[in-house]
Amino acid sequence: xCRIICITARKDGAGKTTTAINLSAAFEIAEKKTLLVDxxxxxHATTGxxxxxxxxxxxxxxxxxxxxxxxxxxxxxxxxxPDLIPGALDLYRYSTENxxxxxxxxxxxxxxxxxxxDYIVIDTPQTPVILMINAxxxxxxxxxxxxxxxxxxxxxGYHFDTFQMIKKGFGLNNDLDHILLTKMDTxxxxxxxxxxxxxxxxxxxxxxxxxxxxxxxxxxxAYGKPxxxxxxxxxxxxxxxxxxxxxxxxxxxx
Length: 254
Fold this sequence. Notes:
CATH architecture: 3-Layer(aba) Sandwich
Structural class: alpha/beta
Largest sheet: 6 strands, parallel
Strand content: 5-15%
Low-confidence stretches: none
Number of strands: 6
Shape: globular
Helix content: 25-40%
Order of helices and strands: EHEHHHEHEHEHHEHHH
Radius of gyration: 17 Å
CATH topology: Rossmann fold
CATH superfamily: P-loop containing nucleotide triphosphate hydrolases
Oligomer: single chain
Number of domains: 1
């Protein structure tokens, strides 16, 4: 059964796109067929996999407005890469499109291809809001990346209240409440205290795996590759593989 995961964050710089890219690649290493969907108009997940947004033949936007079938949007990069539906700036135009049930178009689009995959990972924007809602509705699971920094925990309760409001408003049954700690530095006492506070507050909603600060994670998008293809022995690569295994084990039990 395919599981669709929406990766989101409260703010920029929280490791959202880094997680979308490298978790997708980690699933592939674990022999789970994976599709990465770049739902962010900025298209960082697309460029992070070495795809030039100016050269793509069809973006997610064209699928969402019915111009191109989902299967024809998919870019296959080869071993070590997830498949990709690219995002581009034209996604900003989606909020101006007319039509019924605009909030569930992404879900319907992914229905066309989900039987080909074990996991579909959506890199979700904060704006336009209509794209964020589409990703929430399409997903079975929602993971929030939270860096271990003081300002990241301010207002986190409001953030989850927003998820629950959307969930209730659209009658969703998905789990919109999983937290991934990023930018973890065990040498920093403030970082350790923030991680401890989040684990005590949200308990099992927080993944055991935390993603460390890692230069290889920061630099691998410049090469257009997941971290596993630039430095598989780095602590960033090991952490994302551990996270993928934790997710696989967690949801196989359900």
